[in-house]
Design brief:
Blueprint (H helix, E strand, L loop, with lengths): L1 E9 L2 H4 L8 E4 L10 E6 L11 E5 L4 E4 L10 E3 L4 E8 L15 H15 L19 E7 L11 E7 L1 H4 L8 E7 L11
Length: about 200
């Protein structure tokens, strides 16, 4: 977790009401109920004048949406950069959380343990953790993936684009079609070039 000191001042509800969604602010960096003793860069989710009841909603640059009661002295409040203010710690980066689904051909317990220990060696034992583990047998078959317009006529393969050939169906689950297109998955067929040669 990397923080840096920023000079800022706490805003009153009246000052927040004058802010727009483009104004850079700082709010509590607490995430999912975990309190952090620092602040995060953020923006209001709507113009300050549109909020009622004294509560303001902001979204941090890390994707967390929080509600702030600036009149509550127990609340961390909303801060804005100001040279005449006081120093606060601002969270700059906190890493990236990856949720991985791994396909291991002919996978067994030894190969999974080896993969896990290699990842821990590469990134650090405190970084790589198994949160949940589900071992699912996957047919060792391959498919061909095509895209075609979502509103195309049936059986018209002329409007089809090849997206990927010879890939595992488990990979297809994590791909998204282009906008306005849909996926067509077919069993893999070897392409035979029957062009006559001299």
């Amino acid at each position: 977790m990397h923080t840096e000191k920023v000079t800022a001042r706490r805003l009153t509800a009246e000052e927040i009401a004058e802010l727009g969604i483009q104004d850079a602010i700082f709010v509590s960096a607490g995430m999912d109920g975990l309190p952090l003793d620092c602040y995060a860069p953020a923006f209001l989710t709507g113009p300050g004048k549109n909020f009622e009841g004294g509560s303001f909603a902001a979204r941090t640059v890390f994707g967390e949406e929080i509600h702030v009661l600036p009149g509550d002295s127990e609340d961390a409040g909303i801060w804005i950069a100001d040279k005449t203010g006081e120093e606060i710690e601002v969270l700059q980066s906190a890493g990236v959380l990856l949720n991985l689904a791994l396909f291991v051909p002919a996978g067994n317990k030894e190969s999974l343990d080896s993969l896990y220990s290699s990842a821990r060696d590469a990134f650090g034992a405190g970084v790589v953790q198994r949160w949940s583990e589900e071992v699912v047998a996957v047919p060792d078959v391959k498919v061909d993936l095509y895209e075609e317009p979502a509103k195309a006529r049936k059986s018209n393969s002329q409007n089809r684009d090849r997206r990927a050939l010879d890939i595992y169906p488990t990979r297809v689950r994590f791909l998204e079609p282009s906008e306005g297109w849909k996926f067509v998955v077919e069993p893999h067929k070897e392409i035979v070039d029957d062009t006559p040669t001299i």
